[in-house]
User: Fold these one by one.
Assistant:
Number 1:
Amino acid sequence: MKCVECGLCRTKCPVFRATMKETASPRAKGMLLNREMNEKLFFFCTLCGMHEQECPYCADLQILKQREKLVKSGATLSRARQIVDNIKEHGHPFTL
Ligand code: SF4
Ligand code: SF4
């Protein structure tokens, strides 16, 4: 089912709770489905799935699918890229 943008799931989303930013909420991700992709927004997610438990409409925000699409298209956050580069170069994720 489609997200009706009610915002009820925001109370369980750890990213929204930490930032209190609507742009980081599950609702914002639901609004962006089928619209222009906002890379940063889909990376602001722990993939915990808590919004699914709270959603009275069982909306499918396709968050994992969207993240997969982004990664396959080569998109990533610079910090994540740094971690991968560090592992390749030093065998651990830390910047020396
Ligand atoms: S999966 Fe992402 S959007 Fe959903 S509750 Fe967890 S952090 Fe929030
Ligand atoms: S995912 Fe469900 S609870 Fe969250 S805004 Fe959409 S319809 Fe509402």
Note: DSSP finds six helices and no strands in the chain.
Number 2:
Amino acid sequence: MVKLHISTIINGEPEEFLCEPEETMLDVLRDRLSLTGSKEGCGSGDCGACSITVDGSLICSCLMLAAESEGKKIETIEGMSDGETLHPLQQKFLEEAALQCGICTPGMLVAAKALLDENPDPTETEVRFWLAGNLCRCTGYDKIVRAVLDTAQEIRETK
Ligand code: FES
Ligand code: FES
């Protein structure tokens, strides 16, 4: 089987890997690069557990071929904190108990960060609409939405 040689940037660091043409970005992240924060919930674009950003756009990594990452900038949950310092969204999710089993949490955080990068002052409706592609079987969503809104307010107040 022919392997493709891909050069990309992942969480700010140059990365090269070999992959098969049909391998997904999610499979390469998890199985070849040991970046297992992105989860596979459905494998069909329905749950958001595998959310990453590619050149700043939020996508489901289970729907992207790894070969498509050539020359792109990929951000995963592993790049969200600043060393030991959690991103404000991560901190707020912990403080406000916006997670239970945690399977959806990396995808929720990546998606929420993409929202706040684009819209630092979202309404509750906008948060719910943005996160509609991220499914959670545990929390009932209210704590997640509250944590995102509270983080947005905190970030605005500290600027
Ligand atoms: S695993 Fe990608 S959307 Fe569910
Ligand atoms: S915390 Fe369990 S699926 Fe969301």
Note: The CA atoms of residues 56 and 85 lie 22 Å apart.
